[in-house]
Every structure is written in C-alpha cells, then in structure tokens.
Amino acid sequence: IYILAVESSCDETAASVVRNGREVLSNVIYSQIDLHTLYGGVVPEIASRKHIEKINQVIEKALSDAGITLQQVTAVAVTYGPGLVGALLVGVSAAKAIAFAAGKPLVGVHHIEGHISANYIENKDLVPPFICLVVSGGHSHLVVVKDYGEYEIIGRTRDDAAGEAFDKVARAIGLGYPGGPKIDRVSREGNPDAVVFPRAKVDGSTYDFSFSGLKSAVLNYLNSCEMKGIEICQADVAASFQKAVIDVLVGHSMEAVSQYHLKKFAIAGGVASNSALRAAFEEACRKNGLEFYHPSPIYCTDNAAMIGVAGYYEYIKGTRHGWDLNAVPNLKLGERIS
Ligand code: ATP
Ligand code: MG
Ligand code: FE
C-alpha cells in the first residue's frame, strides 16, 4: 500500500510517499521559515500564498523521489486540521484534485495524529497502547494512544503551548524567531540552575499544563534586571527557562505512565526535537524502567511522512473522505468530520 501524503497546516509545504505504513520512500519539505523570520512569526496570508506556489512541485518531487507514479499510489492522505485555515485549504484542495483526477480514495488526517504517528517510522516495534507527550507550536497534550487512531487526551495546556512559550521567551531575550531551536542551542552554554523559575501546577488536574506563568516570570526577571541595571546572561536565562519547562513535562508524563500502568512512552511535535528534553526523558524512562520512543528531529517538526503513516492506519481501518472534505482549523483529536 502506497500513501501519498500532503501537509500544509502551518508554514511547511510538505509531501511524502509512505509504503505499508512505516517505510518512508520520500519526504519533501519546503520550509517557509526564512520568509516569516522577517516578521518574527508566521504570517497566515503569506503562508497560504507560498503554499499555493510550492505545493505542486513538492508533490511531484515526492513522487519522483519515491520512484513511483501517481497511478501506483493506493490513496491520498492530507492534513485537514487543525491549523491555519488558508494554509490547510491549499493542501486539502491539491489532495482532492489529485485523488479525484487519478481515481484514488481520499483520507483526511488530523495533524496531531500525524505528529504522534511519526514515532512508528523509526520504531518498527512500537505498537499501541502507549502514552505520548505531544509538544508542538500549538499543542501540549498528554495522550493515551489506546490503539491506532484511538486517543484519549488526559492532559492539555490551559494557556500557551510549550513551543509557543519557547518562541515568546526567545523573542524576549533577543534570540528572535524561530525560538525553539535557538533556545536549545544557547542553553548548552548556560547554567540551568542560574535562575529559579516557577514550575506551575494546575488546580484540579494532575496532567494539565500551564506555561503562561513561566513566560511572565521570565519577563518579570528581565524587567527587574533592567531596572537594577544588571546585564542578563542570555544563555543562563534560556537554560533556566528550558529546565523549568522540561521539569514539568517530565513530571506530568512520568506520573501518567505510572497511573495508567503502561511501560511505553513516546514524545512528538516540534519541541520533542529539543536536545535537553530528549536527554531528560531518556534518563527518566531509564530510571522508571520504561521503553522510550522518539522520532528523529526531522520527523518531530512538521512533515508529510507522519501524515502518510497516520493516513495508512486510517486507510486500513476504512476511513474515507468525500470530495466535499473541508479544512477544519480547530479539529479535535479523535473527532471525525467528513
Ligand atoms: P502544531 O503542530 O501544534 O499545529 P506547529 O505545527 O506549528 O504546531 P511544530 O512544527 O510541531 O508546530 O513545532 C514547531 C514548534 O517547535 C515551534 O514552536 C518551535 O519553536 C518548536 N521547536 C522546534 N525545534 C525546537 C527545539 N530544538 N527546542 C525547542 N523547541 C523547538
Ligand atoms: Mg512550522
Ligand atoms: Fe505541527
């Protein structure tokens, strides 16, 4: 079974061919990061226009890199939410047109289901059930993956997503956009215990996250340093902030695995490529006797291979979408809209 997958939910135009669910034959990603760096963040209108410009050549390259023709494709999978509506529409329209013209079935995929499924690519032995921490630009979810396509969200953020916090703090300390990778890099030179930032607990839920308080604490610290005329050490602030985020993520996750009696734990999403976070989870999982799974960095940030994997499992379960498939910007995980 060959899945041609398309992803355009944010600022990556991507297409991929995946064979039998876990074998990536091609993974083409056109990143618009340079374009948006100028504005300090993703500008939705610019993203949509660039997707339109790039989508066809990205899809053609995915097919040619895989060495297959459109006729050999079994089904076309596409991200239809959540994400930026204009950006999503470009991928959805392209996928519908191609599937319709070639007479192939269409499978709509949830973007976060894609992020989680990225773990199947390099871990051929990973099968549900397991717990997955999804930390991306727009989401911070603790998810029980009960089966393929079956999810229970047991924890979520009450305010900012983890990636969003990285991006905002990076901007505040003058690192610029995109913040995650930059904080990751400068933190290696910094002392994570230099500044003590709060580890927020959320009332009423063991597994929910809150990162806006931490962001404010960093801003307050920067302001007070400025008022006192103290020069801040960028690397120390970055490392201390990063440590505070990681401590909370690891704490909640380990509590969840023990509560649910699962022995397998995975991470997913852009922030999952953070080197200190990976090291911290490696350590925590070893201590707790858990099997730890994580995608390579290229499969953590947005890509279409992960959509191809999720699309495969949806396809063999019988999921099909009609030609009226629409972009759903606030699609919920596990929710089905045709
Ligand atoms: P979502 O998947 O929630 O819709 P998105 O697709 O924009 O959002 P991703 O592409 O999964 O998000 O991840 C991008 C986020 O990951 C950004 O916030 C970015 O700063 C963060 N990120 C990327 N690399 C790293 C890193 N090495 N360390 C920390 N954060 C990182
Ligand atoms: Mg992106
Ligand atoms: Fe994403």
TrEMBL record:
Textual note on the cofactor: Binds 1 Fe(2+) ion per subunit.
Statement: the UniProt record of this protein carries the keyword Phosphoprotein: no
Listed GO biological process terms: tRNA threonylcarbamoyladenosine modification
Keyword terms of this UniProt record: Acyltransferase, Cytoplasm, Iron, Metal-binding, Transferase, tRNA processing
Protein name as annotated: tRNA N6-adenosine threonylcarbamoyltransferase
Organism per entry: Eisenbergiella massiliensis
SUPFAM superfamilies: Actin-like ATPase domain
Gene Ontology CC: cytoplasm
Enzyme class: transferase
EC number(s) reported in the record: 2.3.1.234
Pfam families referenced in this protein's UniProt entry, alphabetically: TsaD (PF00814)
UniProt similarity note: Belongs to the KAE1 / TsaD family.
InterPro entries: ATPase_NBD (IPR043129), Gcp-like_dom (IPR000905), KAE1/TsaD (IPR017861), TsaD (IPR022450)
Predominant location category: cytoplasm
Catalytically driven reaction(s): L-threonylcarbamoyladenylate + adenosine(37) in tRNA = N(6)-L-threonylcarbamoyladenosine(37) in tRNA + AMP + H(+)
Superkingdom in the source lineage: Bacteria
Compartment annotation: Cytoplasm
GO molecular-function term, one example from the UniProt record: tRNA N(6)-L-threonylcarbamoyladenine synthase activity
Cofactor: Fe(2+)
